[in-house]
Write a structure and sequence with these properties.
Length: about 450
């Protein structure tokens, strides 16, 4: 049995084991309440979470509005109802134990309004807000208004320093901890900076030491760092516990916590997760948010990567002219052989991109892309796929067909859609499900069983 001290998180002493928040509808009130009830920290996702009708059935998020703005309002209302529903379930299931954290994406559409309305509607249920994907400068202020803690998710000391200097210092009493999410290991969106190479992972220990030094400089010695990304067996992380250079630490389990009986996708995702081999999770820049993200390399991702490969530059003038997105453009004549072979093989629909290039899709792909862009409901603050921007309605660029509607794709992954055609976020250690004897014979543990197992070091 590993010796793990309790750590004060969001005001109480708990096991230093944290459920990674997972949208859409992967970490829920049920999973969060179960982690809290097991003595740790549960995290439900408040990103377009499910709400339920009077019979306890999930209310499908169907959009009836004719304009994007009308659909966006529907989305906000769904998100608020879902967040409140999940917070209340978490509270009930936790039996008053552990802590209940709520995860949001700073770059989700109307993030601040949604946070306000959920915290208002679920008063007393949520102990903290955990927020990543972007620079959540207003997070501390919002949390302190509601008397709850906040946890920024960062991937470098530099990002934390910028946040603290500019705003968190004014709300330091409510800063519960800092989540360090390793950008080369963690599932979901990843905080790689422009200067970092997706193919050259850096040592997480050194990055954590740097983060701790930065926090010490701000007199945050007693504020825990929650380590996320690639955490599986704690026996492999013994050097990160009781370590003077790192100070107080806790561990976050994002991918591993998917396979629990409380998680709504455990059964449907299990065959895929169990079959993964090392390297099957891909770190790509395809998300419409503009961030890198880590997901299972299924048909959907492969199709998108191939779409990028069937791409040529638009040039000022050339004898090779085609109709792309309804407009005649000249393209690089040196690529004519490739272009002809793509068209011959069915990729005959040319679509313009905002990078002055043209991609070649099948007519079905092109139809789906255009239809997804048209039915956008503004789920992000800015989306390169539809060119939606919540400030002013448009990014002022043409929509980018090389990305996809993440809202539609994540909703499908969580609600019984085709797993080969949806985005399945996963961390780079997900292949370990198939190797870890704990999951032999397709065993799915309860959260309590998983927490007990983690406490043994394995
Ligand atoms: C399916 C899935 C969905 C995720 N969604 C979110 C999310 O909505 N917000 C967030 O902050 N992190 C999200 N994450 C990241 C996790 O919270 C966690 O930090 C990360 O998975 C840790 O790395 P690991 O996967 O190696 O355990 C997601 C991860 C997965 C696997
Ligand atoms: S197109 Fe972009 S902003 Fe619109 S719903 Fe899809 S992911 Fe969200």
């Amino acid at each position: 049995m590993l010796k793990l001290d309790l750590v004060k998180i969001s005001g109480v002493e708990v096991l230093p084991l944290v459920e990674g928040g997972k949208g859409i509808s992967i970490s829920t009130g049920e999973t969060c309440g179960a982690w809290a009830s097991a003595g740790g920290v549960g995290t439900f996702s408040a990103v377009n979470a499910d709400s339920y009708d009077e019979n306890g059935k999930i209310i499908p998020q169907i959009y009836r509005g004719r304009s994007r703005l009308e659909r966006r309002q529907e989305l906000i209302d769904y998100a608020v109802a879902g967040g409140i529903a999940q917070a209340k379930i978490a509270r009930e299931r936790s039996n008053g134990k552990g802590r209940i954290h709520m995860n949001v994406l700073w770059e989700m559409g109307a993030c601040e309004e949604i946070l306000f309305r959920i915290l208002e509607g679920a008063k007393g249920c949520v102990h903290a807000i955990v927020c990543g994907a972007g620079m959540p400068y207003n997070l501390g202020e919002i949390a302190s208004q509601f008397g709850v803690y906040y946890y920024p998710i960062v991937s470098s000391a530099r990002a934390f320093s910028a946040l603290f200097r500019r705003s968190f210092k004014k709300a330091r009493d409510f800063l519960g901890g800092v989540v360090y999410e390793d950008p080369w290991l963690a599932g979901g969106h990843n905080g790689l900076s422009n200067a970092e190479d997706p193919l050259k992972p850096l040592n997480p220990y050194l990055r954590l030491v740097e983060l701790r030094k930065t926090m010490d400089n701000f007199s945050l010695q007693t504020t825990p760092i929650i380590i996320a990304g690639g955490v599986w067996w704690l026996s492999e992380w013994e050097d990160y516990v009781d370590n003077k250079e790192l100070g107080l630490t806790a561990f976050q389990f994002g991918t591993r916590s998917i396979l629990t009986t409380e998680c709504p996708v455990a059964k449907t995702w299990q065959p895929k997760l169990m079959s993964l081999k090392k390297g099957d999770v891909k770190l790509t820049p395809l998300s419409p948010t503009g961030f890198y993200s880590s997901a299972i390399g299924n048909k959907m991702l492969t199709d998108l990567l191939e779409l990028q490969d069937r791409q040529v530059d638009i040039v000022e003038d050339s004898p090779l002219k085609i109709i792309a997105s309804g407009r005649e453009v000249s393209i690089d004549v040196s690529r004519s052989e490739e272009v002809n072979s793509w068209i011959k093989n069915g990729f005959s629909a040319a679509m313009s991109t905002p990078s002055q290039t043209v991609i070649f899709a099948t007519p079905e792909q092109s139809k789906r892309i255009l239809s997804d862009q048209r039915s956008c409901c503004g789920c992000l603050s800015a989306c390169r796929f539809s060119s939606w921007c919540q400030n002013g309605g448009s990014l002022g660029k043409i929509p980018d067909p090389r990305s996809f509607c993440i809202q539609k794709s994540l909703q499908a992954a969580a609600h019984g859609g085709d797993l080969d055609a949806s985005l399945i976020f996963a961390g780079h250690s997900a292949y370990r499900f198939g190797e870890d004897p704990f999951y032999a014979n397709n065993f799915i543990p309860t959260t309590q069983q998983l927490v007990d197992r983690i406490m043994t070091g394995y």
